[in-house]
Amino acid sequence: MRKFLVVLDDSRECLNAMRFAALRAAHTGAGVTILSVIPPEEF
Fold first, then answer.
1. Are 1 and 30 in contact (CB under 8 A)?
2. 38: confidence class by pLDDT, cuts 50, 70, 90
3. For residue 25, what are the CA distances in angstroms to 14, 38, 39, 42, 43?
4. Most buried of 13, 20, 30, 41, CB within 10 angstroms?
5. Which domain covers residue 30, as residue numbers?
6. Reduced to 3 states, what is the DSSP secondary structure of residue 28?
7. Total structural domains in the chain?
């Protein structure tokens, strides 16, 4: 099965990337894998 990897962060562009990947996956029968990026806390 084909998969689209979408990397999420706190930017507005990631919402567009997620929407695009979801639409492509729906039209091609693929899946979507989401990777969320969280910056490390400073001590």
1. yes
2. confident
3. 16, 25, 28, 37, 40
4. 30
5. 3-36
6. helix
7. 1
Q: Is residue 14 part of a domain?
A: yes
Assess if residue 20 is contained within a domain. yes
6-34: per-residue pLDDT in tens? 998 888 898 899 999 999 999 999 999 99
Q: What count of other Cβ atoms lies within 10 Å of the Cβ of residue 24?
A: 13
Length of the chain: 43
For residue 43, tell me if it sits in a domain: no
pTM of the model: 0.73
> Does 41 reside within a domain?
no
Q: Where are the alpha helices (DSSP H) in the chain?
A: 13-28
